[in-house]
Amino acid sequence: MFCGSSSGRERHLDVASAVGRGLAERGIELVYGGGRVGMMGAVADGALAAGGTVIGVIPQSLVDWEVAHRGLSELHVVADMHERKALMARLADAFVTLPGGAGTLEEMFEVWTWAQLGLHSKPLGLLDVDGYFGHLLKMVDHMVEEGFLKPAYRDMLLVEDELDRLLDAFRGYRPPAYKWVEEGPLR
Which run of H or of E encompasses 30? Predict the structure, then answer.
């Protein structure tokens, strides 16, 4: 789960908590950034309140800032953000992005790039709360139009506005077949 350490609007916190509960109710373990604040805290608390397993991965610097969630099923403290993202990617079976800021988008774009390079074949989705990602998706479509993103790679990014639909899309996800040609990898 990638989501903001800030709270955003009250609606965003409500959705994050509901997503955490929804995952727990389905028996899906939550792997996330390990924070107790903002959207991160809300999604973790929602899952924990519903009896779910929550695994946090947090760099020591954020533990030092006292933002680590101390009530998790597991908390992995790592050296830095690079190690955090690598461990989260290894532990996760899929990636869900909720509203957040630059760090949230950076994490999402990195695992999406890894998928484009064939480094993993896990589904990646945006939970588009109240159209939060609308402008970003316009930019992604513009990247396709301008020839910087292949349509097959655009299709890797699953977008839904409800958790159930996103999880259904994950079940049907098939990564593109990779073959390098002079213009780059194609399906």
Answer: strand 30-32
| CA–CA distance, 72 with 55 (Å, rounded to integer) | 6
- The owner of tokens 């609308």 is 134
Angle in degrees, CA 21, 65, 36, rounded to 5: 10
The residue type of 73 is: S
CA 93 to the chain's CA centroid: 11
Ramachandran assignment for 34, one of left (phi > 0), alpha (psi -120 to 50 degrees), beta (any other): left
Q: Are 54 and 21 in contact (CB under 8 A)?
A: no
- Domains annotated for the chain, with CATH where assigned, are 10-166 (3.40.50.450)
88 SS3 class: helix
Q: Are 30 and 43 in contact (CB under 8 A)?
A: yes
pLDDT digits (tens, 9 = 90+) for 129-177: 999 999 999 999 999 999 999 999 999 999 999 999 999 999 999 998 8
DSSP calls for 171-185: HT--PPP-EEETTEE
**Pair of tokens at residue 126:** 């945006």
Q: pTM surpassing 0.90?
A: yes
Give the E-state strand segments of 42-162 in sequence order.
Answer: 54-59, 74-78, 95-97, 124-127, 157-160
